[in-house]
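Structure ticket #2291
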Amino acid sequence: MYYKNETLKPIFCNGRFFDFFPKSGQPMIISYSRINKEILFKEDTNQLVWGNVIKRKEIYSINNLRQVFDALICQEVELINKNGSNIPFHIDINDEDKSLIIDQLVFDILGDKYCLESPLMTLQQYSIYQSKYNRNGQTEKERVECVRRCISNGLKKQTAIMNSPELRNEIIELGVNPDEYFKYFNQVSTPFSNGEKQKIYKRPKAQWDYIYYSADTKLITGKQYDRSFSKGRNYSHNNFISLFNACDQYINELFMQPTEDNKSYFLKSLEFYYFEIYKRLDFIYKFAVRLDELDFPKMEKDCIFIKRFQPAVCDVLEQNGSLKFGNRIMYYRPMLMLEAAWLEKLYEKPVDVFKWQKHHFIRAKIYELFKYHFSFISNDYDEISDFIKVHYNILDYHDSNKIWIQTDKNQKRQREARIIKALEINEALFGASDKRNPMVWHP
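Resolution: structure written out below.
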């Protein structure tokens, strides 16, 4: 699908293109991630044309990054409220909320930096690294081979999902080319199944982590990926507690140990950040604790605080030298900064659903605009680490004293209630899906 050019009007600031805005006044998230050129207005033909490769303004510090986000939010809110006056959509962000959104955007950019700097590893190198945290009484060689086999099984599952006709259209809608992913997963998996010597492929550690966490069924993360928590499978509360205990120990060993320098602290913190945004273990725990004393309905997948933010975005594209507009579904990471503040205040005042949706929207809008107009270039890990320690200190965020693990018999009812609520939240986040049942994998 293509949007007609006349349905979007360009907004210029100081003579330079800033953003597109729908003439209808309906706010829209627009992604410029698939282009790298300037957009210019040609007065003699009254048309938009491509310019040179865009020169993004470079930002060198966290403080300047925050200032840029502040300015972008003010500019975008003014634009929306001015041009969207003919529809019932008005954004009003107080200083406290704006500060939280800015914190979240900083972490979005630090997350992108982490992905770019994630060290490249071969499967063997990653298996050796991960085997340190999976002892199980085995020899080192056995542990390494166990990790390799685990990743192999995970790759087979993901290959089957990418090769599933039922899921193909949904995968494409998310902007993913399933054929490329199939080729990638298949090339790494095949040597395990046909006896060939494993080829050496170096991949970012962040990619290996995602595959491993989704594949290891000894961890709760693998069971989340497999959707294996339904009561119909006789999954008991004690099993759930055991898995949480095991994962808590794993997290403490992997993420919570002292680091040798600030760069290592940055990488370790963002490793945990990515672990949490995909697997949501601490969110599940904290949400269950706070819902225990509230008259809250059964948790469903459509709950605003559970449902993943996957809006349709307008893609700016270049097609045969012309400006075109397409659309796809984008996945935006959970807003951990705002979630943490909301969970702390849940007893006092529930978050307004419409306000939460608007925060999701403005965060995504500013994130896309920043990536088109700016670049964050900083290796000042002292400053970066200071920011993380204040706004996302993983030792504070991950509370190892899980209330439901307590052995006090007087708290049995409280513990059981929280386990039930945690299971509800987990199943809402990782609910069963007939479409996700993969085809039989054939290498």
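Closing remark: The two ends are 34 Å apart (CA to CA).
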